[in-house]
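[recover] target loaded
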């Protein structure tokens, strides 16, 4: 046996064991009144008390709606963006120009959300924001982009597209690189133009990749990114921007309700599990491979 190759697996296995599987046992505190002084083994068991408190919380449905809507908008507008970018890049024939464009659209991924939020305030802020200064200079009135609830979700999705869409093209470009070029040559001989080649060759070639990533995305439907939302949230947009992550931050880290917020996290995980299993079943029902 090639023991040296198996040894290469050890660091990865240890990582998942220590940081993924072992912490999973911590979900038991969702059914306890956990006390750091008593520990997991000696804290009092309370059953489904924290889940009942969560579902009877007067703002639960508002938080649930905000989370679902932001995730839905990301699914509709952000998820297709890397696919479109990958298809456009795939059509470029000048290699140096293609590599330059790829580098440019990858760069925002390496910028932290703190910097992105700061840039957004500099561009759209009412006090010295570039856009509002231009609006005022042209005779208009300043627009409160950052404190108007109607703009919040659009702003969040737009930031996500700008920052991560370019990085997301990597997987799709890799899938496109595996398409047999003879298929395109045969299509050209048959008189197919670019659009027909795209529809009948390119898209079917990456369909399985798109479906797998979509299924995995559904598993995180209640995760919209704490840091991103937290940095853009303020009291004026709290009604449309307060999501489970920010709620868990307030109740868990600030309020010290560890058991309660663990119950919130377990609820989110169960919703994601159901959606992934359902989407995977539908995918296989229509003849696709699915995730498992």
């Amino acid at each position: 046996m090639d023991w040296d190759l198996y040894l290469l697996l050890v660091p990865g296995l240890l990582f998942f064991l220590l940081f993924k599987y072992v912490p999973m046992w911590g979900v038991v505190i969702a059914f306890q009144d956990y006390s750091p002084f008593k520990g997991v083994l000696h804290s009092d068991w309370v059953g489904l008390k924290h889940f009942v408190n969560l579902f009877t919380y007067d703002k639960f449905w508002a938080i649930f709606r905000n989370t679902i809507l932001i995730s839905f908008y990301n699914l509709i507008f952000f998820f297709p963006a890397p696919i479109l970018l990958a298809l456009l890049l795939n059509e470029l024939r000048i290699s140096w120009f293609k590599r330059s464009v790829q580098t440019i659209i990858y760069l925002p991924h390496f910028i932290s959300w703190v910097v992105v939020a700061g840039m957004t305030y500099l561009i759209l802020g009412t006090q010295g924001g570039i856009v509002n200064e231009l609006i005022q200079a042209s005779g208009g009135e300043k627009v409160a982009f950052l404190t108007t609830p109607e703009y919040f979700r659009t702003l969040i999705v737009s930031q996500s597209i700008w920052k991560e869409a370019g990085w997301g093209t990597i997987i799709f470009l890799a899938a496109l690189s595996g398409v047999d070029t003879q298929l395109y040559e045969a299509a050209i001989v048959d008189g197919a133009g670019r659009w027909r080649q795209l529809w009948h060759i390119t898209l079917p070639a990456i369909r399985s990749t798109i479906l797998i990533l979509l299924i995995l995305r559904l598993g995180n439907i209640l995760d919209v990114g704490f840091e991103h939302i937290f940095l853009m949230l303020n009291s004026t947009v709290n009604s449309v921007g307060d999501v489970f992550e920010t709620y868990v931050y307030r109740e868990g880290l600030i309020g010290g309700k560890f058991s309660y917020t663990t119950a919130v996290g377990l609820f989110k995980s169960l919703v994601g599990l159901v959606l992934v299993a359902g989407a995977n079943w539908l995918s296989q029902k229509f003849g696709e491979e699915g995730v498992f």
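[recover] notes: The chain has a mean pLDDT of 90.
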